[in-house]
Design goal:
This protein has 339 residues and is an alpha/beta fold. The chain contains 13 helices and 8 strands. The protein is globular and about 75 Å long.
Length: 339
């Protein structure tokens, strides 16, 4: 059909019909531009995936059901699809997921998303956490060259819990204990000059050498030059890993060494992080804090125009995402050594 005739026909439609048509056309365009399962199908069809039930690498195609390709594992004999195990499994209204990701990119609140998409607020909350728990493995490259690492602290929060073992705190109120205590959660923030990042929720209170090792131990090598503050645990970690280590002692107003060794990049980053958590979300429950670190990681690493594409690429191939989402509480208690 001639484009001019389409335009003339569009002008004859009422405002509501025009809006409805535009929304449908945008949804079609989104579906073409952002194929949620493209990477997962490519992975499975190229025999680069694994069974989401037992992680076995050998599987075969097993027909289609309602147009969806089925696969069958040769080890456990269980069937699965491209959805199985991913955050997309058992989600209804999948046509709203791309619009949801757009609103998420824009930083909309749960109330704004609820009103925009006409979904339940609990649904908006669940979708957010299913998405961000699935992008936990962003970096696979090691830190190379000058690498900065420092810790920042968030107040331990049980936001949303109905049964507290302590008196509830007014939102934004600090604790009475001075200094670093087990009422604060340590997050280790590390980055090299190539923008390889790592944000790891580590422990309650002061960090140890083991916490640092768990956070970045598998990301350092002989080409890593570590810069940190004077915390003794960093010194022990660097010695164990045989790393070149430069210590910046703030107490001596030592902020830069040799015009290149400093931790100003990570200090700036965790300032943005704390501002984002405190002002955008008014704080988050500690059990969800690592998920928000994942989200912030994507925001820092990629341009806003790449956000949706990268979240889809990173999240839809994670077949442990649904299991991780269901075990957030258990993993949180193990991490914080809570009974």
């Amino acid at each position: 059909m001639d484009i001019l005739k389409i335009k003339d026909f569009f002008k004859t439609l009422g405002n509501l019909t025009q809006s409805s048509l535009l929304s449908e056309l945008q949804a079609i365009r989104d579906e073409v531009n952002y194929n949620l399962l493209e990477n997962r199908y490519k992975q499975l069809n190229n025999k680069e995936g694994s069974c989401p039930h037992c992680q076995n690498l050998k599987y075969v195609k097993n027909g289609k059901l309602k147009g969806v390709q089925n696969y069958k594992c040769k080890k456990c004999n269980r069937s699965f699809t491209a959805y199985t195990g991913t955050w997309l499994a058992h989600i209804h209204k999948k046509d709203l997921l791309i619009p949801y990701l757009k609103l998420m990119k824009e930083g909309k609140t749960l109330d704004e998303i609820r009103d925009e998409l006409k979904i339940n607020k609990k649904t908006a909350f669940d979708w957010r956490h299913k998405i961000i728990v699935s992008i936990s493995e962003i970096e696979i490259e090691p830190f190379i060259g000058i690498t900065e690492s420092d810790e920042t602290f968030f107040l331990h929060s049980e936001k949303g819990e109905s049964n507290l073992n302590r008196e509830a705190r007014k939102r934004g109120k600090s604790v009475s204990t001075r200094g670093i205590s087990d009422k604060q959660v340590a997050v280790i923030v590390s980055a090299d000059r190539r923008k390889t990042l790592n944000l790891k929720v580590s422990c309650l209170g002061r960090i140890t050498k083991e916490n640092i090792n768990q956070a970045i131990g598998n990301m350092v090598n002989e080409r890593t030059v570590l810069c940190s503050d004077g915390h003794v645990s960093y010194k022990g970690f660097a010695l164990d890993k045989s790393l070149e280590h430069h210590v910046l002692k703030a107490s001596l107003k030592e902020h830069v060494k040799e015009k290149k060794f400093h931790i100003q990049h990570v200090n700036s980053m965790y300032s943005r992080l704390k501002n984002w958590i405190d002002k955008r979300f008014l704080g988050v429950a500690t059990k969800y804090l690592q998920n928000y670190m994942n989200w912030f990681h994507v925001k820092e690493k990629f341009k806003p125009s790449e956000f949706i594409k990268k979240v889809i690429e990173l999240s839809t191939v994670n077949t442990l995402a649904r299991n991780d989402y269901r075990n957030i509480e258990r993993k949180y208690k193990l991490l914080m050594n809570l009974s």
